[in-house]
Amino acid sequence: MELVVYNISGKETGRKVTLDESVFGIEPNQHAVYLEVKQYLAAQRQGTHKSKERNEIVGSTKKLKKQKGSGSARYGDIKSPVFKGGGRVFGPKPRDYRFKLNKALKRLAKKSVLSQKMKDNSIKVLESFSFDAPKTKEFINLNNALGFEGKKSLYVLSEANKNVYLSSRNLPKTKVLTYNEISSYDLVHAGEIVFIEDAIEKFTEILKK
Q1: Residues 14-30 pLDDT 10s
Q2: C-alpha dihedral over 73, 78, 81, 85, to 10 degrees?
Q3: How far apart are CA 92 and CA 84, in angstroms?
Q4: In angstroms, rounded to a whole number, what is the distance separating the alpha carbons of residues 44 and 47?
Q5: Which residues does 72 contact at the CB level (< 8 Å), separation at least 6?
Q6: Backbone angles phi, psi at 44, to 5 degrees
Q7: pTM of structure
Q8: Bridge partner list, 12
Q9: Which residues contact 128 (CB under 8 A, 6 or more apart)?
Q10: Which domains does the chain have, with CATH numbers?
Q11: Which of 60, 96, 195, 199 has its CA 20 to 30 A from that of 181?
């Protein structure tokens, strides 16, 4: 399994990289992908929702009318949940939505997404590059050269590059991450994935552990 290496002009360099079939050629496990995406989204939740229950409402505790003889339902105090402004029954409370997954499952999820992307021909390898200064226009030209105009793309770097990151920051459909920051959500969310040549080797090593 091989992929052609492109340069920033979108031209083939004549080199190829060999991909590990145990990472890029497995049968995708959709449930593993679902679990890791669910974990990622759950971790984004603030969990600060809160409503007041009956004992937290400020109001009179006086019984509104006598218990019997009215011909209608029994009433307690004004803080009852049946009245407007009363407390809420079993309302939401602050909580942490995060949950744990084992590392082997998370590796399987990433390999599953990468294998599916390979089947869809949505992975490219780019030779190492950098910008002299942050310029969004240069990154737009790179996207266009690779045929990503109007598409969501994820660039995977081998190490942090400030100029490359800043150049892509204003592009809503483009995301730049280093190989050790990637989640399955990032891979699924991207329409096209671009690995920098040396990043794909490092990412493969992580997933083979």
Answers
A1: 888 889 889 998 999 99
A2: 130
A3: 18
A4: 9
A5: none
A6: -80, -15
A7: 0.81
A8: 6
A9: 158, 196, 197, 198
A10: 2-46+97-207 (3.40.1370.10), 51-91 (no CATH)
A11: 96
The contacts of residue 73 (CB under 8 Å, 6+ apart) are none
DSSP state of 56: G
pLDDT tens per residue across span 109-144: 999 999 999 999 999 999 988 888 999 999 999 999
DSSP annotation of 112 reads H
Q: How many Cα atoms sit within 13 Å of 155 on the Cβ side?
A: 28
Other beta carbons within 10 Å of 167: 23
Q: What would the 3-class secondary structure string for 21-34 be? A: HHHHCCCCCHHHHH
